[in-house]
Amino acid sequence: AVRAILTKHGIDLGNATLADGSGLSAHNLISARQMLSVLNFIQKNDAELDFIKLLPSSQVDGTLAWRRSVTAPMMKNKVHAKTGTITGTSNLAGFIDTAGGQRKAFVMFQRGLSQDPATHERYRASKAPWPWTVFEKGVLESIYQQQPIQIVEQCYTGCLAAKAARLAGLGGRW
């Protein structure tokens, strides 16, 4: 039914697989570009749908009340999104109200985030932010401040861990 409704409104989900409505099935597969198309449709039609107000808001409610990537004072009640986290993944998709008063849709699907037990323990013991949280925070704050976002290096856990460790001042071999 979801696919039929979106197709009717010109959103092509192509090869996306929607196994259930919860998003918890490992068989749900949708690209960030496809999800962004859905969010753009929601934003364009929110006067009729009245959907965005139902999403958790940063530092206010739901999983965004405590998500570390949206704790800066300027981000309070600016991010309206759904989280999705299972082992090795961290997802966030929704809308952000920019400093200039615009509302922007965004999608961040991060995967391959598993860490070896020793690295996991170092982060837990140090209370340092997880590498993907540092990345997510940087992207969200750039969108909020209406700065261009450029991904210059694509990598998985090792690279993100090294960058985050430097930012957090942990040093060492990550």
What does this structure look like?
It is a single chain. The protein has 6 helices and 3 strands. The chain has helices at residues 2-8, 32-44, 46-49, 117-126, 131-144, 157-168; strands at 79-86, 89-97, 103-111. It has a 3-stranded antiparallel β-sheet, sandwiched between helices. It is globular and about 50 Å long. The chain starts with a helix and ends in a 6-residue tail after the last helix. Residues 156-174 have low confidence and may be disordered.
**Overall shape:** globular
SSE order = HHHEEEHHH
The percent of residues in helical segments reads: 25-40%
Low-confidence stretches: 156-174
The major pleated sheet works out as: 3 strands, antiparallel
Annotation keywords:
alpha+beta, three-stranded antiparallel beta sheet, 6 helices, globular, 34% helix
Q: What topology does this entry show?
A:
Blueprint lengths: L1 H7 L23 H13 L1 H4 L29 E8 L2 E9 L5 E9 L5 H10 L4 H14 L12 H12 L6
Antiparallel strand pairs: 1-2, 2-3
